[in-house]
Amino acid sequence: MLKLSGFHVSNYHNKVRLALLEKGVQFEEDANCRPSQKDEWVARSPMGKVPIVEFDGAALSESQVICEYLEDAYPQPALYPKDPAARAKVRELITHMELHMELVARRLYGEAFFGAKASDETRQQVQEILARGVRTLRRLAKFDPYIAGSEFTLADCAAFTHLPLISLATRQVLGSDALVGIAELKPYLRMLGERPAFAQVHQDRKVAQAAMAARAKV
Q1: pTM of the model
Q2: Which contacts qualify for 61-66: CB closer than 8 Å, 24 or more apart?
Q3: Which DSSP symbol is given to 9?
Q4: In Å, how far are 32, 143, 145, 177 from 101, measured between CA atoms?
Q5: Can you tell me the distance from the alpha carbon of 178 to that of 163, in angstroms, rounded to the nearest whole number?
Q6: What pLDDT, in 10s, does the model give residues 160-191?
Q7: I need a labelling partner for 193 at 20 to 30 A (CA). Which of 34, 57, 120, 202 fits?
Q8: Domain definitions of the chain by residue range
Q9: Cβ atoms of residues 51 and 96 within 8 Å
Q10: Are 68 and 122 in contact (CB under 8 A)?
């Protein structure tokens, strides 16, 4: 059986988990794994990252690669449209949210979630780059009712896991939510949260966050 390893606070782990749950793929899960450079972990995940998926003696890392594999190996229900151009637009949305928004906002996570301190230079750079990312998202996103249009896709799994983190980190560190100007976002995320798989992943993330916070206080 396919095995997913990572942890429930990880947005990239949760993106893959949502894809598995939405596709109805049976899988085992080890939700107690963290990024590591130990030899035994790097042997499974070359960069020492999470998540990883293992099957038939093989291992895959990088969440988007894993999700592409799942789409090939378990094509129904599909998480991409049939039309090649529409499929490309879904990939464009995912790439944009991850490369030009989440990875930019990630520079604030140390201060937002782990007690570190972001420099003034970092704050300014993140604010400027993220503003361009948000403007672009407003051009790319459809919210009709899903982020890529009328069909539910993998872009919705990515949006649900990444965008709330960006909102929270920018609100806590920069003093304002970088996504506040996207009026459609809150009702869209609320709609996604009503799907059983999304509700389950959201609840498990909250439990894992509470446990992490409790350990930090000890």
Answers
A1: 0.95
A2: 63/12, 63/13, 63/15, 63/16, 64/94, 64/95, 64/98, 66/16, 66/19
A3: T
A4: 27, 18, 21, 13
A5: 10
A6: 999 999 999 999 999 999 999 999 999 999 99
A7: 34
A8: 2-73, 84-217
A9: no
A10: no
